[in-house]
Write a structure and sequence with these properties.
alpha+beta, 267 residues, 4-stranded antiparallel β-sheet, Mannose-Binding Protein A, Chain A
Amino acid sequence: FCYIFASPEVCTNSLIPGAKGDQGDYGEQGEEGKLGKNGPPGLSGVPGEPGLKGEVGPSGKMGPIGEKGDKGAKGFDGPVGIKGQAGATCDCGRYRKVVGQLDENLGKLRNNVKFVKNVVLGLKETEDRYYLLVKEPKKFREASMNCKLRGGALAMPKTNNINRLMADYISQAGLTRVYVGVQAQSKGTDGIGSYIYADSTPLREFAVWSQEEQLYSTSSPATNVSCVELLNTGTWNKVVCETPLFFICEFPKSRRRGRGGAAASAL
């Protein structure tokens, strides 16, 4: 096209745009672009529910023996005894010195027996039984056999008083847990198992399971936690029977041997 302006010498060529055409087809999808920068971290999520209770870990090494405590204060003097009857006069002068010496020796013997029971053996006792804490880590079956070889059995806390005595025994020794004579028995025909004492008697009304055991307990004891440990708090926990632990033995007081017979057997 040629437009002629006022001057005959000027001429220009230019394209006049036409009407808008139809929309073309979409092209093929291009290649994936490069990853952009990491965005800012999001908000913290809601905490999840607590997981299941894990298995009991292996026993740690025994800590060092603590320092000897201070000597306790002297106790109060006991009441004065009743005045005895006057003795009969006789010609026993030469025997009095011998009898006095025998009394002195008997007193020393009693002190020695008391020392053996309370210091050397560290025994605790009730009206009819002795209790001995054995500081030799053993598996449950080995601990039970060890008590039998000593002439007793694994200690069975059948009452609250006995359970408390044994828990205090553990605390005074600086320990946290020991085996006692409670374990799971085989399931019956109904498929339900239960826990019994070492002498095969049922627990009946008395049992001091910890709050965790009550929370996670089931109607049937698990085979891998079918033994029981007593904590120094006085509560019971189920434990794997292959775990080496210290343990407490009990010994009946023998009437034939006298009050010192069980202590001598335990030693």
